[in-house]
Design goal:
It is a single chain. This protein is an alpha/beta fold and about 160 residues long. It has one domain: Rossmann fold, CATH 3.40.50. Helix content is about 40%, strand content about 15%. It has five helices and seven strands; from the N terminus they run E-E-H-E-H-H-H-E-H-E-E-E. It is globular, with a radius of gyration of 16 Å.
């Protein structure tokens, strides 16, 4: 099987490396590391793929600024509001310029204006880099931001 130009033979380390290198995740429950600052939560994926610390921190700061968190770089996740945590997890998903972003309810903790702004950042990033973003959501406000919509009802594809 090939994903993102890589042939996978089923070796768990191959799958782990693919997830690290090519997939950005936005988890519904955020999955932020509580012992790290906002800046370090975003810089960590970059460090894991080999970016030098200074470069990782600069890219993380740029992303956090884009998501309106430039004044919260040193904040612990436990001190952030739900919307700030949401934006932090979105920034982290974009950090390594992944080929694919998988986003589970990426605007659940954001109001309408901030949700639209966040999805526009994701959308422009994916279009500019010719990447894919799969969003799973109940938020119908995102429909006009999608290039393609698949609707699942009771476990079945009912519209495409």
């Amino acid at each position: 099987m090939q994903i993102a130009g890589r042939t996978l033979a089923g070796d768990p380390s191959d799958l782990a490396r693919l997830r690290l290198d090519a997939i950005g995740f936005v988890f519904q429950s955020f999955n932020l590391l509580p012992s790290l600052t906002a800046l370090d939560n975003v810089a960590l994926p970059l460090r894991l793929i080999g970016a030098p610390g200074r470069i990782a921190r600069r890219r993380a700061a740029e992303l956090l600024e884009a998501f309106g968190l430039s004044r919260r770089l040193d904040a612990s996740p436990k001190t952030l509001s739900g919307g700030e945590k949401q934006n932090l997890s979105l920034a982290r998903a974009l950090a390594g310029d992944p080929a694919v972003i998988l986003a589970d309810e990426p605007t659940a903790s954001l109001d309408t204006a901030n949700g639209r702004e966040a999805m526009e950042i994701i959308r422009s990033s994916t279009h500019r880099g010719r990447r894919a973003c799969l969003v799973v959501t109940h938020d119908v406000r995102l429909i006009d931001r999608a290039d393609r919509i698949l609707r699942i009802e009771d476990g079945r594809l009912v519209e495409s």
